[in-house]
Design a protein that fits this description.
about 100 residues, alpha/beta, globular, about 40% helix, four-stranded parallel sheet
C-alpha cells in the first residue's frame, strides 16, 4: 500500500487503497489508524467486503477520520453487513452515511 495519495498538475489524486481483513481486531485497528494518518488529506478507498467482524476501536478510527476530513472523500467498496452493522450498533450510523459507497 502506498502511504500518500499523489496528485499531478490538477489531476485527481490517486486514492490510498486500504483492504480490511475478515476480522478487524485491535491489531488491524492500529494498522488502519496508521494507514488513515498516512493518507493525509487525500482520498481513501476502503475495501470492506471481507469484513466479518470489526472491533469498536476500528470503527472509532474511521469515525475520527470521517470527522477530521470533511472535504477528503473516503469511499467504501463492497461494504459487508457486519461492517455497516457495527456503526449502527454503536449509534454511529449518521457517520457511516457521510462515507461514499460503491459496489
Amino acid at each position: 500500500m502506498s502511504g500518500q495519495a499523489s496528485q499531478t498538475d490538477g489531476a485527481p489524486a490517486t486514492p490510498v487503497r486500504i483492504a480490511l481483513p475478515a476480522r478487524v481486531n485491535l491489531a488491524a485497528a492500529d494498522a488502519l489508524g496508521a494507514q488513515l494518518r498516512a493518507a493525509g488529506a487525500g482520498p481513501v478507498e476502503l475495501s470492506a467486503e471481507a469484513v466479518e467482524r470489526i472491533c469498536t476501536p476500528a470503527v472509532l478510527w474511521l469515525v475520527s477520520a470521517i470527522r477530521a476530513r470533511p472535504d477528503a472523500p473516503i469511499r467504501v467498496t463492497g461494504a459487508s453487513d457486519p461492517f455497516t452493522d457495527a456503526f449502527s450498533d454503536l449509534g454511529l450510523f449518521a457517520d457511516l452515511m457521510r462515507l461514499e459507497f460503491a459496489s
